[in-house]
Each structure stands twice: as C-alpha cells, then as structure tokens.
Specification:
Order of helices and strands of chain B: HHHHHHHHHHHHHHHHHHEHEEEHHH
Strand order of the largest sheet of chain A: 3-2-1-5-8
CATH class of the largest domain in chain A: Mainly Beta
Number of helices of chain B: 22
Largest sheet of chain A: 5 strands, mixed
Order of helices and strands of chain A: HHHEEEEEEEEEEHHHEEHHH
CATH architecture of the largest domain in chain A: Sandwich
Shape of chain A: elongated
Number of strands of chain A: 12
Strand content of chain B: under 5%
Strand content of chain A: 15-25%
Number of strands of chain B: 4
Oligomer: heterodimer
CATH topology of the largest domain in chain A: Immunoglobulin-like
Structural class of chain A: alpha+beta
Distance between the termini of chain A: 59 Å
Largest interface: A-B, 104 and 100 residues
Chain lengths: 337, 658
C-alpha cells in the first residue's frame, strides 16, 4: 500500500512539474497581479502543508505507541487531562494567531492588487456573450473607438483598465497568468486592472458556467510593445479590405445576401449586425469561435459549414451553402486581415 | 447533578407524578410496565408498537427505524447514481477533445451529480442516520411527530424520482447545482429543465425541514430521565445543532427556488436586471443557504466521529464541553460566510475582507474539534477496527480540505482559484473527507446495531485502503490542474493546454474510488446475509443505543433507561437503572424537561397511518404539476387539504378529551 501511494505521489509530482509552464497557469505569472497572487498561493500552501504535517504527526502518536490495545474503558486521570488541556489550548491559540496573520496578509495583498491599475490610461470594455467576448477600445475621439472580438491587444508594461459586463448570462473573465478572475454580470459593471510585464500571448477562458459552450469560450491577451500596439489599433480602425479577386468578390456578395449579414458586422460594407463578433479584420485574429479553432482556411470552412458540429449549441446557425459558395465566402473572409 | 437527585428520580416513576397532578383517572388506565415480567412486557409492547403486517401496513409504518432504513437504502442508491454520473464525466474528461459526451448531456450530468449528492444523498443520509440513532441514543421509543417523519420520507422519494425521471427523459436541469440566474431564468433556460431544479429543491427541503423539526423536539422533550443537557451524547448534539441550521437555512433556498419558478412561470422579473430585478440577489439568497448546507452535512459527521473515537480509544471524548460549544459556534458562524462564494462578483473590497475574516474564524471551532479528538486518542494505543480507520481517513483528508478552505477564504487568492478544479478538489476533500469517510466509518460502526450482524473486517480494511488511495489519486491532482488554469464545468479542453495526462490520472483514480464503493456494497450485502452475529454491544461502546438488542425491537427499550452519565453503559456496568410506569397497551412516551430531563408527563405517540403517504403523494403531485402551470397550486390544494384533514382527524382518544 505504502509503495503504491509513493508511486502515485511521484507521478503526481512529475505531472505537476511538466505542466508548470502553461500559458494559462496561475503558477506561471506574467504580470504584477499574478505574481503577487502566485507568491500568496505558495505562502499559504507552504504554511498549510506545515500545519497538516503537524496534525498528522499528532495523529500518529497513539499509533506509534507500543502498548497493547486496552479493551476496558480507561480510568480517567485528571492530571493527564489537564496537561492535554494545556496542549489543546496552545494549539487553538496558535491556530487563531495563524488565522489572524493570514487574514491581514490577504487584506494587504488585496490593497497591493488594487493599486496596480490606479494609473491606467487605456480602458477596454469587455462584454460577455454566449459564447464569445466583445472587446471595445474606448477613446475620447469617437472615430477611434474600436470594436473587435475574443482577442485583446494591450500595450506591454502598461496597466490597462477592463470594464466588464454582460448582455446575457453571467460570465467570468480570467487570464490566470496576468490576474485573478472577475465576473461579467448583466446589469452591472465590474472593473479589472491588468498589466503584462512583457510582450506575449496569454490565454484565458470564461470561468463562470454560462451554458452549453462554456468550455469553448477562450480569450487571448496579446501584449505588444507600445508602438506595435498603436499600429495595430490604427490598422483595426481601417474598413475591411476590398476583395482581391473574383472568388472573394463573389464571397462578399454572398455574405451580404445570406443570413451572415444579419448578425455580423464588416466595416466598410452594409453588414452591420452586432449580435455576433465583428468580422472586419477577422483574418488578423489567431483563432476562430473564441479559441475553438486556430485561424486557417480549412478551419474557416469547417466552422461555417458545420458550426453545430464544431461548437454544439452555439448560436451560429447552419447556413445552406453549396461547395462553391462556401469556398467563395471563405476566400472573402480570409482576405479580411 | 448529585447522585442523590438521581436516586429520587429512580424512585419517582412518571406515573406517580402524573397521577399526583390528577391528570389521569386511574380507571381509564391500561396495564403498566411496572412490575410486569419481561416475557409479557415484550408481548404487550410488541403488539402495541409493531408495524402492521401487509403492504398497507408497511406503507403506514411510523417506526423511526423502519423509516430510517428506507431513507438509508434510498440515499445509498442515489449515491450510486450520482457516482455513476461522476464516472461518466471522468471518462469524458480523461483526454482532451474527447467526443463521448456532448455539452448537452455533460451539463445535465454535472448538474445531476451535484444535485443528487447534495440534496438526494448527503443531507438525507445524515438526517436518516439521525432518525435511526437519535431516539435510541436519547432512550425513547419513537421519534417526535412520527407521521411527519414518514411523510418526509415519501416527499423525499418523490423528489428524487422526479429528478431522475427527468434525467431519463433528457429533461434534467443543466444549469449546475446552484443554477445561477439569468442562465436558469426564463430567457436563457428554455424548456422545463430549470423548473425541474427549482421544484426538486422544494421537495427535498420540505422533507428535510420535517425531519429537522422532529429531531429538535425529540432531543428537547423525549430524553430519558436524567439525561440533562451535559449528558447528551455528542452525536445527538450534532444532530440538534444541524437541525437548527436546517430550520434557519432551508427557508432561504426555498425562497430562492420559489422566486425562480415565479420568474419562469408567471413572469415576476425578480431576478431580471432589465426590469429592475437583480441577478446577484439570487446568489446571496442561494449561498445564505448554500454555505450552512455544507455544515448541515458536516456537523452530523463530526457527531459520528465523536461517537466512534471514544468507543475505540476506550475513554470518553476529551473536552466534551468544548466540543459542544464548537458545534454551536460552527452552527452560528456558518451563516456568516456565504459571501466567500461570491468574491469574484466584484463586491466592495472592504465588505469582502470582512467575509475573509469570518471565513477564517470558523476554522477556530473546527480546530478545537480536531484537537480534542486527537487528545482523546493520546491515552495509549486505540483499538483499531474499520470504523476507526475511516476516522483516520477523515483526519487525513478533511484537514487538507479545511486548510484549502482557509486559502479560499482569502479574497485575492480566491480570485485565482474560484470556479476552477482547485475548488472542485477543495469541496470534495471537505465533503468526502469530512462527511463520507465518517459516514462509511459510521456504517461499519452501527451496521451491527441495525442488522444484528457484523460487517466483514477484512473486506472493510480493503475497502478503506482502496477508498483512501482512490480518493486521493482522483482529487489531489485537481488542486494542481486548477492552478494550471482549468475551470470547472467544462465538457472538454484543448490539447495544447497540457491538461491531458493529469486528467487521465484523475480519471483512473476516480474509477478506483468508485470500485471501493462496489466493494463496500458487496460487504454490506454479504455481511447482512452471512455476517457474524453482533450481540447487543459488539464494540463495548457507552451510549444508550447499545443498551438494547441488535436490531432493536419496535419499542426500542423494554423499560426506559435512567441516565447517570455521558456514557451510561460504562458508568452502570451491571444493569442500567430504569424508569417505569408507562402503559403497555398504548404508545406512551416519557416527555421530560428541556434542561434537566426530569420526567414530566406521559404522552401518546402517533399510531401507524397511511395518510402521510397519501399527503406526500398529493404534495408531490402538486409540485410536479406546478412546473407546467401556476393553476397546479389551485387544483393541488384540494387533495392536499383532504389528505391533511384525514391525517389530523381527531380520533376521540380519551386522553385528548382531558
């Protein structure tokens, strides 16, 4: 039994080390909030482990005793029980001290976290939808307001303020390597400040159960140097690229004639739907359907042809298209860089 | 209390008190147990207290032991069903992007798993154990309000059937066991699935409230003479505190589910933010119940630990008073923590910090309990038998769960682990470690009392090790995968996140853990048929349930014991002092005073009746019908009124006329 347990333990440790460097891991922090939290997690874990070992040692004491099993009820010794009372009271006192300490620690950690974004210059409104994220970059100049979906570009090294809300059910925004999670609640607005220390791509996903496709509601924070970020913003403000060939032109016509146009927006065309992700620059994104598929011609076709197979329950309907029509629409969307 | 008082009590059987007050006219009296020989006493009491023969008789039974056995078997079946749900989920999650189970079924599976384990297994089984043991431990002949108790079982069964028939029809709730709005609201929860959740809650809450009331009255008013508050066994204390928590917590969830069904059925918009309602209100109401719910499950388990440890450590529990006060403190504090389930909703930071402090604070009384139990075990080597092994398993697992609970109490830390597999690991450590392991220990401990046969010790040890290893293999890695970013309630996950291997390991552990229950079920059946005869008191334990035969007769005790000590059977080795004077031709109980348990009056206990079943059927039918139309309340009121009138129709008993 003991050997089995130790093998299991070793396996667990091995698995643990293997996965430590995930791009969606609270233990692999890439920003000040997550770093503070990772430190807190390790501190609590260490302290709890010590307490656990002490309790187990206290439990092992009677089992180590060599004495035989006593079958008759014990005659109580008042002196022994008094000594025990002192031990128990000391343990209770220590427990209280540890708990007060941890409470204070978590209170001050909370203050540290709250200070991270106090000087955030950039505000992004993130709205949860079943099952994708609407991302709107706020700006004092209305023409610079930018709406995109699922991928959030931020300047690295700068705090960014996220305003979180939802139009349908409750979602929760969570990018573990940057910060803790916060809910998106219809009728309320929550504020989450995040900061990525270095450029990189940090994955997150919805953390509050939100229906059929809760599992496929991913998001990506893409942190870039300030100049690259500004360039990206300017690119995204441009209307959609015009179709570059005949097939893509056919695709655009089909897009505008078929149900696609009812839900999606493509800047610079009559398509202005707002209930589904903005597709103006869809091909510049890394994934499709909120992190469900990587962006590629094949995956675009698969997603349009069979959305209920790729993401069962999703609100994207099946649109009846011939093979040629499908290819044309894919060719068009692929050009929307 | 001095021994002199007790002697006088022994000399003053209740009949003398009663007749001194002139309450009972002697000519109407039937035969009494005073001075009656054992054989005729047994014949009289059996005739008076037995469950009537035949199917109607069985359905009319109000014997707390019969009802409790039914509860226990039913709850165990629901445990198996909930466990099968879990195995199905673990197979789906054993690798990335598996296609065995789609999101529609998976969401029903985890909802049914949660609902079944919380409402159809955990709460009913701890209450059922109480229904069986509390009357025996306090030395009375039946639970208070025995017909209400029978009613509670039928309502519980109909609620369970309702939920599982819906699942069979693919109509089961798919919104999680806490069914947050707006996802479960009229707009985003189409069909009848969320209605099934809401009404199933109502069924099970009605039944657990009924049991709670019966338990409280039994403990307060039916204790054996001499069992003053300081001599009540800890297990009974735990059930008493739990019952009070039920009485105060359950109405909150009944309101929640009723508001939800009103929103869905008649469009009240209570939770609809677009119409001035509030989605967060649901969470406050739900968790005001939901956190005490955890203690409703956990406190009786601490009572079991407090019963098992002294029997095997061969001494009374160390710090009896401290343990009682801790139970009460936990009961109170459990109502002050609900917000730690809502840290991620963006509440004001200072308010959230207050709930950090209160959540940390509850670790103190729980710590007192742990330390007192440990101190009890320090007087030499305990007698190690399967029940105690499971208590050791409880320490091993529950302490981890308690400590991760301390981590979750911290607002900032919680924001990283909330709604991830870390939390899934935490509450399984708390609930399985804190409640299921003690329950398994309790099963081995009290099985001889219930069936008259011992469970196999050899199989029991295999069961223990398999359960301990399987449990930890299944749930410990969940802490890690949660920290790696895996949220709970996902039916699949992408391969590139690297969670595949660890999830396969978890699934293997889950299968092992499930197999341990198969072994347990085999041990139960095998031992019930072929186990060694147990005798009255196989563990030489000290509390009153071991004073009667195994299994106990329908009347529990031939003569009501008089209690002189917390462990009466250890204090009175030769023969237990008894109180006499009860009639043997009618179901009479001793009603005693709340604090000192002085015998006060003799009171009739209800006779078997089919009406509780009929009332439960009409109540159940009304709840079922009400998911379809509000008119159900109107049409359902008629049969409910009829059955309740039948139930409470005055019988013209001479006692009632006085």
């Amino acid at each position: 039994m003991k050997r089995l347990a130790s093998i299991a333990f070793a396996t667990a440790i091995a698995l643990f080390l293997q996965g430590c460097a995930g791009w969606q891991s609270a233990l692999d922090p890439k920003g000040p909030a997550a770093s503070e939290l990772a430190w807190l997690i390790w501190f609590f874990t260490g302290l709890c482990a010590v307490v656990w070992v002490l309790v187990m040692a206290a439990l092992a004491v009677p089992l180590m005793m060599r004495s035989r099993e006593r079958l008759e009820p014990l005659v109580l010794d008042a002196g022994a029980d008094n000594r025990k009372l002192r031990v128990v009271m000391t343990a209770v006192g220590l427990t209280a001290v540890i708990l007060v300490g941890l409470t204070l620690l978590s209170f001050f950690a909370n203050r540290t976290l709250a200070a991270i974004g106090s000087d955030a210059a950039l505000t992004i409104r993130v709205t949860g939808h079943q099952w994708w994220w609407e991302v709107r970059y706020e700006d004092a100049t209305p023409s610079r307001i930018l709406t995109t979906a699922n991928e959030i570009h931020i300047p690295a090294g700068e705090p960014v303020r996220l305003l979180l809300t939802s139009t349908d059910v409750i979602h929760s925004f969570w990018v573990p390597s940057l910060s803790g999670k916060l809910d998106l609640i219809p009728g309320r607005m929550n504020v989450l400040d995040i900061k990525a220390d270095k450029p990189g791509v940090y994955r997150g996903q919805c953390a509050e159960f939100c229906g059929a496709q809760h599992a496929n509601m991913g998001t990506f924070i893409i942190a870039e140097p300030r100049a690259k970020f500004d360039a990206w913003w300017n690119d995204q403000l441009q209307p959609a690229a015009a179709p570059s060939n005949d097939e893509a032109k056919t695709g655009e016509d089909l897009f505008l004639k078929r149900p696609c146009v009812m839900c999606h927006k493509i800047g610079g065309t009559p398509a202005g739907g707002t209930v589904a992700p903005d597709l103006t620059h869809v091909a510049s994104r890394q994934t499709l359907a909120a992190g469900t598929l990587t962006m590629s011609r094949g995956n675009l076709a698969a997603w349009i042809a069979d959305p209920q197979g790729v993401k069962p329950g999703s609100h994207m309907p099946v649109v009846d298209l011939s093979g040629d029509e499908l290819n044309a629409i894919v060719a068009y969307l692929e050009g929307l860089k | 209390m001095s021994s002199a008082d007790l002697t006088s009590e022994r000399d003053l059987p209740p009949e003398r008190e009663a007749s001194a007050k002139g309450d009972v006219a002697p000519e109407r009296d039937g035969p009494r147990d005073t001075g009656m020989d054992d054989a005729s006493l047994h014949r009289w009491l059996t005739r008076t207290w037995r469950t009537p023969p035949g199917i109607i008789g069985a359905l009319s039974s109000v014997d707390h032991k019969v009802i409790a056995r039914r509860y226990l078997v039913t709850a165990f079946l629901f445990l198996c069903l909930g466990g099968l749900n879990a195995v199905a989920m673990r197979i789906q999650l054993s690798g990335p992007q598996r296609g065995l189970i789609g999101p529609d079924l998976y969401n029903q599976l985890f909802t049914m798993h949660g609902v079944t384990m919380m409402f159809l297994f955990a709460v009913p089984i701890v209450q059922a154990t109480g229904i069986y043991l509390v009357p025996l431990m306090v030395g009375t002949r039946n639970i208070a309000f025995p017909r209400l108790n029978a009613f509670s079982y039928w309502v519980y069964v109909s609620g369970g059937l309702f939920a599982w028939v819906s699942f069979a029809l693919s109509m089961a709730p798919d919104v999680g066991w806490f069914a947050y709005v707006p996802l479960s609201g009229p707009e985003y929860g189409p069909g009848k699935r969320a209605d099934v959740w809401a009404q199933m809650i109502t069924y099970t809450e009605v039944s657990s409230l009924a049991v709670a009331v019966a338990t409280i009255v039994t403990v307060f008013k039916q204790r054996a003479p001499g069992m003053s508050l300081d001599k009540i066994p800890l297990y009974v204390w735990s059930l008493l505190v739990t019952s009070f928590v039920v009485v105060f917590a359950m109405p909150a969830v009944m309101i929640t589910s009723t508001f939800l069904i009103l929103d869905r059925l008649v469009g009240t918009h209570i939770f609809n933010p677009a119409e001035g309602g509030d989605a967060l209100l649901f969470q406050h109401l739900f968790w005001f119940f939901g956190h005490p719910e955890v203690y409703i499950i956990f406190l009786p388990a601490t009572g079991m630990v407090s019963a098992i440890i002294p029997a095997f450590a061969r001494r009374p529990v160390f710090g009896h008073l401290g343990l009682v006060l801790s139970l009460i403190a936990v009961g109170f504090l459990s109502f002050g923590l609900w917000v730690h389930h809502m840290f991620a909703t963006g509440l004001p930071k200072l308010g959230a910090s207050f709930f950090t402090a209160s959540s940390m604070m509850i670790a103190i009384p729980n710590g007192v309990q742990i330390f007192c139990w440990l101190a009890t075990l320090w007087d030499g080597r305990p007698v190690i038998r399967t029940p105690l092994l499971f208590v050791f398993g409880f320490f091993f697992i529950f302490v981890i769960g308690g400590l991760t609970g301390v981590m979750l109490a911290s607002v900032p830390l919680d924001l990283q682990v909330h709604d991830t597999y870390f939390v899934v690991a935490h509450f399984h450590y708390v609930l399985i470690g804190g409640a299921v392991f003690p329950l398994l220990g309790a099963a081995y401990f009290w099985f001889p009392k219930i069936t008259g046969r011992m469970m196999s010790e050899r199989l029991g040890r295999w069961h223990f090790w398999l359960a301990l290893i399987g449990f930890n293999a299944a749930f410990f890695p969940m802490h890690i995968v949660g920290l790696w970013g895996m949220p709970r309630r996902v039916y699949t996950y992408p391969a590139e996140l690297g969670w595949g291997n660890i999830n396969l390991f978890i699934s293997a552990g889950a299968v092992l853990f499930f197999l341990s229950f198969v072994l347990f079920a085999f041990n139960l059946v095998h031992s019930a048929l072929k186990g060694a005869p147990a005798g009255d008191n196989p563990w030489d334990a000290g509390t009153l349930e071991w004073a009667t035969s195994s299994p106990p007769p329908s009347y529990n005790f031939a003569r009501i014991p008089v209690v002189t000590n917390v462990e009466p059977l250890w204090a009175e080795r030769e023969a237990l002092p008894v109180a006499t004077g009860l009639r043997v031709d009618a179901r009479e109980l001793i009603i005693s005073t709340v604090a000192e348990a002085h015998p006060d009056i003799r009171e009739k206990s209800a006779t078997p009746s089919i009406w509780p079943l009929l009332a439960a059927i009409s109540v159940g039918g009304t709840f079922l019908y009400s998911i379809f139309t509000p008119w159900a309340i109107v049409w359902g009121a008629a049969p409910i009124a009829v059955t309740l009138i039948g139930w409470f129709w005055p019988k013209g008993d001479p006692e009632d006329e006085e």
